[in-house]
Each structure stands twice: as C-alpha cells, then as structure tokens.
TrEMBL record:
It comes from the Bacteria. Binds 1 Mg(2+) or Mn(2+) ion per subunit. This is 3-isopropylmalate dehydrogenase. The gene is leuB. One of its GO terms (molecular function) is 3-isopropylmalate dehydrogenase activity. Pathway: Amino-acid biosynthesis; L-leucine biosynthesis; L-leucine from 3-methyl-2-oxobutanoate: step 3/4. The lineage of its organism: Bacteria, Pseudomonadati, Pseudomonadota, Gammaproteobacteria, Thiotrichales. The record marks Y140, K191 as: Important for catalysis.
Amino acid sequence: MTKKIVVLPGDGIGPEIVAEAVKILEKFREEGLNINLEYGLIGGAAYDETGTPLPAETLEMSKQADAILLGAVGGYKWESLDISVRPEKGLLGIRSELNLFANLRPAILYPQLADASTLKPEVVAGLDLMIVRELTGGIYFGQPRGIRTLDNGEKQGFNTLVYRESEINRIGKVAFDIAAKRQGRVCSVDKANVLESTELWRETMTTLSKSYPDIELSHMYVDNAAMQLVRAPKQFDVMVTTNMFGDILSDCASMLTGSIGMLPSASLDENSKGMYEPIHGSAPDIAGQNIANPLATILSAAMMLRYTLDEASMADRIEKAVSKVLDDGLRTADIYSAGMTKVSTSEMGDAVLAAL
Ligand code: IPM
Ligand code: MG
C-alpha cells in the first residue's frame, strides 16, 4: 500500500531545509519505497494565503496521511498578529488535532562535532540522550487562558497548567518503553516542590514504574535538570517531562550536540502515526540565504522511516550518510570550525544524498 506523506514546509528556513529532506525521500522512492508526497500550507505561509495558520485542507490531508514532514513556523512578519492566528497556533493545532502527544527529541553528539559544542569535549563525548516531551497537554493547552482586565484597570495574563492521570500515564509508558530498548533508565522531570499538577505527575510516574520492574526511575526538579544537563549530561538515558519543561530542556540539550541545527524530532500518536520536524525554529534572520543546516530535517526524515514507515535500514543509511559527510569535513555555518569545509544548505543535502 502506498504510504501518504504530507509535507508542510512552513516559514523562514522551513522550505529550504525541507527540500533537502525531500530529495532523500525521493531517492528512496526511486529505489522502490512506496510513498506519495503531498504538499500543504501551515504557519505564516498559510495565514498569508488563507487567513488561518492551519487551513482545514491542511488538517484534513494531515489526518489522512501516514506521516507528516514539517519544516518550521513563525517569523517577525507575523509577530504582531493576534495570538489566535499566529503561525505557532498552526503547529500547536496540528499537534493537538492529530493527538500527537509523544514528542521524542533525541540529543546525540556526533563525535565529529565534539568541537562545535560550547561544552568541553569530555563532558559531551558519547552523549546519547532521549527527551520524551508531553506535547498535547499542560500549560500550552490548559484552560482558562487569556489576558483580562482587573477591576483596578490593570491587565493580567493567565494560563493554566493541568495534567490528568491518563495523560501522565500514556507519556510515561512511551518513556518506559523507549528506555527498555536503551539503558533502562528514566528520569522524570517536574517541579513537584511547587506545582500540584507536577506533584501528581511524580506520583503517577512512580505508580506506573511498578509495572516496569526492569526500568530504573528517578525524579528531578526542572531547575536541577537544567543544571545537570550542562554539568554532566551523560548521566541521563531517557528524560520524560511536561510540555513546557520539555520545550525548554530540549533547546538546552541541543546545544550539547553543537548546534540546534542537528536535532530531529518525532511526534507520535497512540498508533505511531507521526509528524517529524527539526526541533529548531524558522530562523527568519537567515531565511532564503541557503545557509541553514538541513541535517535536523534530514534526520527527522530518518526518524519517519524508522518509526512510521518501518524502514529501519533506510533510516540507518541516512544516519550513516550524515556521519560520512561530517567525517568528510563538510559543515554548514552553524557547525563550522576551522579547517572544515563550509557548505550551503543545498550542498549539504546533495552531499548526504551522494553518501547514501
Ligand atoms: C518547539 C517550538 C514550538 C513549541 C513553538 C514554535 C510553538 O519551540 O517545537 O519546540 O513551543 O513547542
Ligand atoms: Mg521549542
């Protein structure tokens, strides 16, 4: 059966980096991978065309799809729009509508990039960490929310941090299952000393862990976790956390690997249908210059092949090809260091293609 892939390039550098990942998917298609690519609008690009960052047509085609490849959304141009139609709403909307609650954000240091990290090589060498971020709940979606005017005329912004046991359990299970295939350790990150919703998070994770006797569960407050990530990141195997903490900690973790331009992600529903996207944003400051790093998007396509399309060997080939081009000294600007060869977005994509 032909697998339907929806491609949503989005804004900023999105179209450039997605084009490089598509080159690779097209190559696999020529080799016999049974996929069909369909394009849609999301984010600011969608707003400009249709007046909404998540047009019904995009949502409909994404619901029909087996997998989605997304670039990035957002940019200066749309910053002053009402929050309800800002590009980010498109991304949050599709995550929520498709029930993509499990966001996997691996942070792996390619040994070739040990020098590109701002941390000492011995601190990051061999780093292989998986952040499992809850993606469709928590403060990102909790009600009530808004900006209201108080009786004294002063404005007040408010959001709500809520988690139900079922939401905690289902993301916990994803983390434990992943840990079972890795080193068997899960660190659950919360702020249980201050926030009741994450006190429940901690209790629920502890109860759940009883069904996973082979997994070692630890707990950490988020402030400490942020510190430990830069102090001794290799202590972690799998980290599981809430939507907002995961957003913040995954950006932090990305820098351990040299550049946020290296980190892919998968957002999965209960049936492993997924959306795949780099964890970085739309980088409007460098958009259209052909200098962005396409590797996070290319590695996201590899995750798609592994998790949704069940083509682990193709995923391996992409990951090895990325390693090969790094061995060959090719670097986009964000991971460039002296003595290496600086390449553009499309040159990097072509090099990975050739290395396949
Ligand atoms: C991410 C991004 C998004 C998020 C934004 C663009 C809405 O930062 O995927 O990490 O906060 O989830
Ligand atoms: Mg983020």
